[in-house]
Amino acid sequence: MKSFTVSAILIFLALCAASLLGCRSTSRAYLPQYIHGNELMRPQNYQAWIFLTSGLHMGGESSGEGTFTSIFVTPPAYYHFLASGRWPEQTMFVQEKRTSSSRANKADHWPTDLVRFNVQVKDSARYGEKWGFFSFGFSQPTAKPNPKTMCWECHFQRGTVEATFVQLFPTLRAAGKKFGTYQADLEGPYAVQY
Ligand code: HEC
Fold first, then answer.
1. Most CB atoms closer than 10 Å: which of 5, 45, 93, 182?
2. What is the pLDDT of residue 106?
3. End-to-end distance of the chain based on CA atoms, in angstroms?
4. CB under 8 Å to 31, separation ≥6 — which residues?
5. 70 lines ligand 1 (CB under 6 A)
6. For position 20, what pLDDT does the model report?
7. What pLDDT sits at residue 148?
8. What is the residue extent of each domain of the chain?
9. Domain 33-189 CATH (choose: 3.40.50.300, 3.50.70.20, 3.40.50.2020, 3.40.50.150)
10. What does the pLDDT read at residue 2?
11. Are 72 and 51 a contacting pair, CB within 8 Å?
């Protein structure tokens, strides 16, 4: 009986250790990776992250094929936001932009080729305004942080939670409102009524 208890405890401890190691390596996969100090490596496997939203004609086109955007966020950041309405340090977003296609004389549209790939990283220690913005173009493997003028203004003036467009993320709007981090006065032209 005694040896059975000891074995059970050992098996339990081994399982705990394995799951802890598993959790660590999984969560490390969601952290931004840099080379040469400040060059961010293009995130891989982002399509297995949490999908937040898509939009057509988000480039401001009034008609035609237009740009199709999709946004993904690292899973630990998503669950942290649901529980707090805030983005944790090391949150990473991918915004992919694709051309779109449609049938002749029909309004249906679907995403086609990747044309641009943008990343936004929260790291208050690295970036003065807490967020770093990166443009990887179509296939660039690494990117340096964009100069402040390129991306900041629009995000800080129009993003409803911490310079991110939570007004366009249907599964997260409610959490932002519940925890009082959602700035409804910033919805502006990107407001989505529901
Ligand atoms: C004119 C306004 C505007 C500018 C300038 C802008 N963005 Fe955005 N960005 C948006 C909007 C609107 C969304 C959400 C909807 C979408 O994806 O189209 C967004 C979403 C994003 C997201 C997803 C996370 C989030 O904050 O919601 C990333 C990543 C991103 N942008 C990167 C960039 C980068 C990199 C630049 C600079 C090269 C940039 N953006 C410049 C308007 C802008």
1. 93
2. 87
3. 61
4. 90, 92
5. no
6. 46
7. 84
8. 1-30, 33-189
9. 3.50.70.20
10. 56
11. yes
Sequence-separated (6 or more) residues with CB below 8 Å from residue 187:
158, 160, 167
Q: Over the chain (194 residues), what is each successive 10-residue block's mean pLDDT?
A: 52 47 61 96 96 86 80 98 98 95 88 94 94 94 92 90 96 97 85 34
- Show the beta-strand stretches assigned E in the chain: 34-35, 39-41, 50-56, 67-73, 92-101, 110-122, 131-135, 142-143
| Whole-structure pTM value | 0.87
Distances (CA, A) of 55 to 4, 114, 145, 146, 168: 58, 14, 25, 23, 9
- 179 Cβ closer than 6 Å to some ligand 1 atom: no
Mind giving me the DSSP string for 146-181? PPHHHHHHHHHHH-TBTTB-GGG-TTTHHHHHHTT-
- If you take atom 14 of ligand 1, which residue's CA is the nearest one? 165
